[in-house]
Amino acid sequence: MADLLELRGIGKRFPGVVALQGVDFTVRAGEIHALLGENGAGKSTLIKVLTGVHPADAGEIRFGGQLIRPGAPKDAERLGISTVYQEVNLVPSLSIAENITLGRQPGRGGFLNWRAIRRRARAALARLEVDCDVDAELGSLSVALQQMVAIARALDTSARLLVLDEPTASLDEKEVAELFTIMRKLRADGLGIVFVTHFLDQVYAVTDRLTILRNGQLVGEYATADLTRLALVGKMLGREVSAADFSPGVVAARPDQTAPILTASKLGRSGAIAPVDLAMHAGEVTGLGGLLGSGRTETARLLFGIDAADSGRIEIKGAPVAIDSPRDAVRLGLAFCSEDRKAEGILPNLSVRENLIVALQGKRGALRALSRAEQAQLCDHYIKALRIKTADAETPIKNLSGGNQQKVLLARWLATRPAVIILDEPTRGIDIGAKQEIEQLIAKLRADGLAVLFISSEIDEVVRNCSRVLVLRERRLTGEVAGAGLSSENLMHLMAGTHEN
Amino acid sequence: MKTKSPVIWPLAGLGALVLLNAVFNPGFLHITLLDGHLYGVPVDILTQGSRTMLVALGMTLVIATAGVDLSVGSVVAIAGAVCAVLLQDGHGLATTLAAAIGAGLLAGLANGLLVARFGVQPIVATLILMVAGRGVAQLIVDGQVIIIKSAAFDYLANGFLLGLPFAPLLVVALYAVAHFTLRRTALGLFIEAVGDNETASRFAGLAAARIKAFAYVFCGACAGLAGVLAAANIRAADAYRAGENMELDAIFAVVVGGTALSGGRFSILGTAVGALLIQTLTTTMYNLGVPPAIAPVPKALLIIGVSLLQSEKVGRWLGGLGRKKEAT
Fold first, then answer.
1. How many folded domains does chain B comprise?
2. Chain B residues closer than 8 Å to A330 by CB
3. Mean pLDDT comparison of A230-234, B106-110, B282-286, highest-scoring range
4. Which domains does chain A have, with CATH numbers?
5. For residue B328, is pLDDT > 50?
6. Which of residues 309-328 of A touch B (CB under 8 A)?
7. So what's the pLDDT on residue A249?
8. Residue B38 sits in which domain range?
9. Is position B52 within any domain?
C-alpha cells in the first residue's frame, strides 16, 4: 500500500512548551490508523499541524507524494484532508443539507441552487448509509446523528484522508458500532483514516496500525495486531504496567454505617429526574451509574443548586438546608466538578493560579483575599500533589492539556476543603495515565474521609472505584447495588433495564 | 510565561502623539508657573481629560464583565442637572455632591438589575437609559441651561491644590483607590472570572449576578461624579450637550487601554493611558484648528491603529517579520 500521508520531523513550540519534537507519522491509503498518547502527548497538536490550524515550526508534510504546507483548515480541506472534531463544529439552527454544504454551496452568482444542495447532501449521507430528512434542523438530531452529518460534510469535499478526533466520546455502544461499520466501508473505498480515541477496546476493534506519542515525541508505530494491550498501555505511559495497577486490590469496603453526611429525600425536578432518595457517608465513594441521558448529571445539578428542585429536601448532618445556588452549596461544604470542562469549568484566559484559588476565594468572600504567599503555597502544593504539568502557575489554563486542566479543577475544589465532592465524568476525554492518577486521588479522598459521588459512563470504572452504586435509567432511580452484588454484569442489566429475575 | 503588558501600545501611541505635537508646536510642552499655579497644554489635557478618565474607570469594570454601559453620557447630564437645581435652591456642597453621585448610583443600579437580574443584553439595557436619561435631565432643569454660581463648586473643576489642578488630582486619587481595592481584595479576580466565563464562575460559587451589578453601580457612580466635574467646568448644567458622546470616548479609552470587549482581563492603568491618549488627540486637533465635524476621523484612525497593534494576528505577523529579518 502506498503512503498517503507522510509527516517527517515535525516540531512545534508554544510559549513555554515544546508541544512536538521530531515526530514522524505515516498513514496509508485504505487503512485506519490510531493516534494514541496521554493528555499532553501532542495528539491534538499533531492534528492541528496536519489540518493547518497551527502551522509547524519544523519538518515537512507530504500528501500523496506532494510536499504541502497547509496554512489554514481550508487549505487542508482543498487538498483532501478533512477533520471531524470531538465537539461537532456545525450550526445547529441550519438544516442538515445546509450544514453539509456550508461554505461550498453549489450555485451561481450569489444565488443558491437548492436542488443541488439537497442532492449533494443526500448523496453524502447515502454514502454513509444514513437515512434522514436533509431539511431537518441539525439541532433536533441526536449527538450521534450530528456526528454522522459532520462526517458526511467532511466526505463531501472529496476527502482522501479523514481525521476523526475522538468521535466516539459521546456515543453509546450501538452508535459506536454503526460508526465503525462506516469507517470500515470508507477504508474499503481507499480512504486513509486517522482515529484518535482514548478507548483501547475501540483501537483493537477497528484499527490496522497505530502511532503512539508521549511528551511531544514519537514512541513508535506498530501494527495493532502485534501489540498486546498491556504493552500498548506501557508504551503510552512510558513504563511497564502490570494488570494489578488497575484492579482495586480489595473492593472498597463500606465504612461502618455512621450517620450520613448528606441525605436527599424525594429530590426531583419534573422533566429532569423523578424523585430520588440518596445518602452519602464520610469515607465512601457512591457511584451514580446509568447511560447517557439517564439523569445522572441532572441529579448532581439539583444537589449543587444549579437547577431548582421542585420536590424533596436535602439534609446535611441531619439538619435541613436550602441550596438555591452553587454559592450556597459551596458554603455548605459541597464541591462539584462538572463534566463539561470547557463551558462550565475553566476560566480559559485566567492563570492556573487564579483558576485554582477561585472557589476558595469565593467561599471566603471578596474582602478576605488570600495573600500572595498563601496563593503561591496552594499552587505549589497542588501542582506537586496532583502532578499538574504546566510551565508555571501564571500560565493561562487554556494552554494546558485536557487532563491537566481537569487536575487544576480538582485542585480548585480540594482547596475549599469540602466534605462532599461530586465528580461528574472526571475521567472523560483524558488519557489512561491521568485516569489512573485521578482514580488514585479518589481513593485518597475516601481515605481522608470525604463523601464522594462518582458519576461515570464507564462501568468498569464505576465498579473499581465505588463501594455502592445507584443506577438511573430513563430519568429515574432503578436500583442500588453494593457489596457482593456490585459487578459489571449486574450494573449493565440495571442500566439496560434487563434486570428481570 | 506572563503575557506582555497591554499598556505598552497605548503608551507608545501617547508618546508618539506628544512628540509629534512637540515637534510642530514647540510651545506644546511648555509649562509655566503663574500665581503658584501650573499652566500649559499638558495641564489642560489632564484637566479636560479628567472627566473621560473618570467615566472610563467605571466603564473598565463593566467591559471586564463582558458588558458595556452606553448610558454614561446621559448620567453625566442628569448629575449636572441635579447639581444645578440643588445649588440654585441654596443647598450646600455636600448635599449637592451626595445627590449627584446618588443619582449616578441609582442609574447604575437600574442598569445592573436589568443586566444581571433580568438577563437583558447590556447594549439594550443601557441604551434605554442612554435615550431616556437625557429626557430625565431636561425635566430636572425644565429645559433650561442653568448657570451655576458657587465658588466652592467651581473649585472642583477649575481650582488648584498645592499648585496642581484639583480635578485631575481627584481622578488620579480615585484611580489609585480603585486599583488598590480591586487588586488587594479579590474583587478584581471575581470581575475577571465572571467576564471570562460566567457559567464556570457561578459553578465555582461566585455570586456572578451580584458581581456584574456591582460593576454597573460603580460605573454609574463614576459617571455621576464626572457629571459634577462637567457642570463645574462650564459653570452650568446643559442637559442637552453635557456628556455628549462620552460613552464612546470612554469605551475607546478602555479598549485602547487593552481591556477586551469580550470581557475578562482588565487594566486600569491601560484605561488611564487610553483616556489621556484620546484627550491629547482631541486637544491636538483643537489646537490645529481642525473643524469639529472632521475631528472624529483622526480619532477613528488612531483607534484602528492601536487596536491593530494589540490584535494577536497582527502581533504574530509583526513577530514573523522580525524573525525573518533575524534569519537573513
1. 1
2. 204-205
3. B106-110
4. 3-244 (3.40.50.300), 245-333+418-501 (3.40.50.300), 345-412 (no CATH)
5. no
6. 325-327
7. 42
8. 8-314
9. yes
Which of A13, A17, A306, A327 is most worth mutating to test chain B (most B CB atoms within 10 A of its CB)? A327
All residues at 6 or more sequence positions from A193 whose CB lies less than 8 Å from its CB, including other chains: A27, A31, A32, A33, A161, A162, A163, A164, A183, A186, A187
* pLDDT tens profile B117-171: 999 999 999 999 999 999 999 899 888 888 888 888 888 888 888 878 889 999 9
| pLDDT, tens only, A440-469 | 899 999 998 899 999 987 777 888 888 899
Query: Can you say how many angstroms the Cα of residue A16 is from the centroid of all Cα atoms in its chain?
Result: 25
**Residue A28's pLDDT is what?**
92
Contact B200 A343 (CB under 8 A): yes
Residue matched to cell numbers 479598549 = B255
> Does residue B213 contact residue B115 with C-beta atoms inside 8 Å?
yes
Question: A107-129: per-residue pLDDT in tens?
Answer: 777 788 888 888 888 888 887 77
Q: At B88, which helix (H) or strand (E)?
A: helix B72-88
Q: In the predicted model, is pLDDT for residue B321 greater than 60?
A: no
Across chain A, mean pLDDT equals 84
Domain of residue B240, CATH code: 1.10.3470
Cα–Cα distance list, A133 to A96, A97, A126, A140, A459 (Å): 8, 9, 12, 11, 35
Which of B181, B189, B317, B324 to mutate: most A Cβ within 10 Å?
Answer: B189
Chain A positions in Cβ-Cβ contact with residue B259 (cut-off 8 Å): none
> Is the CB of A370 less than 8 angstroms away from the CB of B184?
no
Are the beta carbons of A395 and B205 separated by less than 8 Å?
Answer: no
Global ipTM: 0.85
B226: in domain: yes
Q: Which of A62, A38, A34 is nearest to A50 (CA)?
A: A62
- Per-residue pLDDT of A140-157, as tens digits, reads 877 777 888 888 888 877
Q: What's residue A416's pLDDT? A: 94
Q: What pLDDT, on a 0 to 100 scale, did the predictor assign at position B143? A: 83
Q: Mean pLDDT, chain B, as a whole number?
A: 86
A406 part of contact set with chain B, CB < 8 Å: no
Q: Which of B1, B184, B189 sits opposite A354 (nearest CB)?
A: B189
Residue A364 to residue B186, Cβ atoms within 8 A: yes
Instruction: Answer yes or no: is pLDDT of B325 > 50.
Output: no
Helices (H), A322-447: 326-331, 341-344, 352-364, 372-385, 402-414, 432-447
In the stretch 350-369 of chain A, residues with CB closer than 8 A to chain B read: 350, 354, 357-359, 361-369
Considering the domain boundaries, does residue B282 fall inside one?
yes
- Looking at beta carbons, which residues of chain B come within 8 Å of A307? none
Q: Are B200 and A344 within 8 A, CB to CB?
A: yes
pLDDT classification of A247: cutoffs 50, 70, 90: very low
- Measured between CA atoms, how close is B193 to chain A, in angstroms? 6
Contact B185 A367 (CB under 8 A): yes
Question: In a 3-state reduction of DSSP, which class is residue A487?
Answer: coil
pLDDT-derived band at A303, boundaries 50, 70, 90: very high
Whether B264 and A331 lie within 8 Å, measured CB to CB:
no
Task: Report yes or no: A94 at the B interface, CB cutoff 8 Å.
Answer: no
What does the pLDDT read at residue A244?
Answer: 47
For A411-431, what is each residue's pLDDT tens digit? 999 999 999 999 998 887 677
Task: State whether residue A462 sits within 8 Å of chain B by CB.
Answer: no
Do residues A141 and A90 lie in contact, with contact meaning Cβ atoms separated by under 8 Å?
Answer: no
Q: Would you say residue B93 lies in a domain?
A: yes
Render the burial of A444-480: b for 16+ CB within 10 Å, e for the rest.
ebbeeebbbbbbbbebebbbbbbbbbbbbbebebbbb
Minimal C-alpha gap between B190 and chain A (Å): 8
Of A16, A306, A358, the CB nearest to B189: A358
Q: Which residues does A29 contact at the CB level (< 8 Å), separation at least 6?
A: A1, A2, A4, A160, A190, A191, A192
